[in-house]
Structure formats: structure tokens, C-alpha cells
Write a structure and sequence with these properties.
This protein has 297 residues and is of the alpha+beta class. The protein is built from 12 helices and 10 strands. α9 runs antiparallel to α10.
């Protein structure tokens, strides 16, 4: 009762899965991912074994096809399952059981697979594949393009309700918090795909701004400016982004832009400014700079 896409980016090796359904909280059951090993979609009458043990198999060195074959052999009802896997080498495996509700099927592409059940027609999974393969750029955006194409082709015949996306790194860094590129869910929403895209774009801006702030703390001013996303930080929307951006700009000598952000912050998020003034006490940011940005009234 879901449509999904799994893929590996051939450029950076990132692996991702994106899914949408009329069912509540589709991401809690369909989406499985492990940095450095692979991603898995298990749907229709989904069986978590394919996710949990599938990732174990991939981490032990099995290919996607080997892991899927092994799990199907011990599943008492494989005819009810629809599963797709991609491993860290870009190998793809997918399966649609004979008891999945029509229209149900899948299609394989270069380093990707699209699958759906209880969807309007086979055009849903072929549209996903075509849209993904025609798109370029950041993997999360490409996966969302595929979901939008699936919905435009008819999507889940019952409508929309929930959506999710996971993207993980090609290799494990030893710092798990850095190995998750995107991990977002919309569990109950009238337009989950639009909301998921909004969250993905905000995630991109959030992490780029945090990166710029950390580079500023390390004294790498030019690198910080290069990492900073374009100027859309609205304090009314996210005061964190506005404040970090103001600090990066002020530290780089761009005082007019930094002061404008700080003034907007004081107007639109006055409750946040008390917290922002505490940054200087740690010694990470010059207190005089903070006092100039946020003068006491």
C-alpha cells in the first residue's frame, strides 16, 4: 500500500530510500538504512525481518541479491512481501510477491529500484525510475523528485498521508551522527510530499549553517563564508539559523548584514536573544562582538 525508491549515488556513494503511503507513519516500517552497508524498503504486508536482518546480512558482506534470497527462503509468507535492497557497491535486488495487491510491481535501474503496490498503475513505479534517472544533484532531492513523479502518475489509489526519507553515507566514519545525511518522516499530513520536501530543504540549510558556524569557531573565516547558504534566514522561522548566520557574517567583517539579522532577531524572537547573549560567556565568541549585535535595551 506504498510506493518507494531505493538508490545509490554513483558520485559520492551515498545511499537512500524515500517512500510515501496513505498509511499512517510509513517511515517507521518501510525504511531501513545503515551507513556503509545499504538501504532497504520492505512493504506491502511488510516484514521487519527484511530490514533488520537484511542490514545485518549486508554488513556481513552479502550482496543485496544474496541477502534478499536468504531472507525469502526463511519467510513463511514471501508472497505477501515487496522488498528492494541496494548495497554499498550499488548492487540492486527487488522482489514483488504474487499476493501483493494490484497494481504491484517494481523496476530496476542503474543503482536504483522503484516499487509500488496498491498504486494506480505500473506507470507509478516507471515514473519514479524515469524521474530519478533524469534528475541530477543532491541525492535527497533526486529521491523526492521520484516520489513527486509517482504521485503525478496516480500514486497510492487511496491518497496521501505519510512520507519518509533516509540517506546515509557510503562509509562509516566512526562518528554515527555524521553518517546520517537525511533522516526525516512526515507521519500524518494532508500533503506529506510537500511537507517532506520543505523539511529536506530546511535540513540542508540547517546543516550548512551549522558547518559555517563551526568553521568560524575554528578561525576559518573564508571557509565559513563559502559554506554559508544563501541569505534566506528568517528569525521568525528559525532564530538559530539567523543567529549563527549573524555570527559568521560579523566575524567576517560583514557588519551591515550581521546587524540586520540581529535586529530582526530581537524583534521577531525576543525570547531567543537572552540565550544568544550567553554565547560570549563560553569564550567561543568574542563578547564584544555579541554586545554590538545584541545591545542591551
Amino acid at each position: 500500500m506504498t510506493y518507494s525508491i531505493v538508490a545509490r549515488d554513483p558520485v559520492d556513494g551515498h545511499m537512500g530510500i524515500a517512500t510515501q503511503s496513505q498509511a499512517f507513519s510509513v517511515g517507521s516500517s518501510v525504511s531501513w538504512a545503515a551507513p556503509g552497508h545499504g538501504v532497504i524498503a520492505t512493504q506491502s504486508m511488510g516484514e521487519p525481518m527484511y530490514g533488520e536482518l537484511g542490514l545485518n546480512g549486508l554488513s556481513a558482506g552479502l550482496t543485496a541479491a544474496e541477502a534478499l534470497t536468504a531472507l525469502r527462503s526463511v519467510d513463511p509468507h514471501p508472497e505477501r512481501r515487496q522488498v528492494a535492497m541496494v548495497d554499498s557497491h550499488g548492487n540492486i535486488a527487488a522482489y514483488t510477491g504474487a499476493a501483493c495487491i494490484a497494481a504491484a510491481g517494481h523496476v530496476l535501474g542503474d543503482g536504483c529500484a522503484a516499487l509500488g503496490n496498491l498504486v494506480a498503475s505500473p506507470a507509478v513505479w516507471t515514473a519514479m525510475l524515469d524521474a530519478y534517472q533524469a534528475s541530477t544533484g543532491w541525492l535527497p532531492r533526486r529521491l523526492l523528485d521520484a516520489l513527486d513523479a509517482a504521485e503525478a502518475a496516480g500514486g497510492d489509489i487511496r491518497g496521501q498521508r505519510s512520507a519518509a526519507i533516509k540517506v546515509v553515507c557510503a562509509e562509516r566514519s566512526g562518528r554515527p551522527w555524521h553518517d546520517q545525511v537525511v533522516d526525516l518522516r512526515v507521519d500524518d499530513h494532508p500533503t506529506p510530499l510537500a511537507e517532506l520536501r520543505r523539511l529536506v530543504e530546511h535540513t540542508w540549510r540547517y546543516h550548512r549553517t551549522v558547518e559555517a558556524f563551526e568553521l568560524t569557531l575554528d578561525g576559518r573565516t573564508e571557509d565559513a563564508l563559502a559554506a554559508l547558504p544563501d541569505a534566506q534566514a528568517d528569525p521568525a522561522v528559525d532564530p538559530d539559523l539567523a543567529w549563527w548566520r549573524a555570527l559568521v557574517l560579523a566575524n567576517a567583517g560583514q557588519h551591515a548584514a550581521a546587524n540586520a539579522l540581529a535586529r530582526a532577531l530581537m524583534t521577531d524572537a525576543p525570547e531567543y536573544t537572552a540565550a544568544a547573549r550567553r554565547f560570549g560567556a563560553t569564550g567561543l565568541i568574542d563578547q564584544a562582538l555579541i554586545d554590538r549585535l545584541l545591545p542591551a535595551s
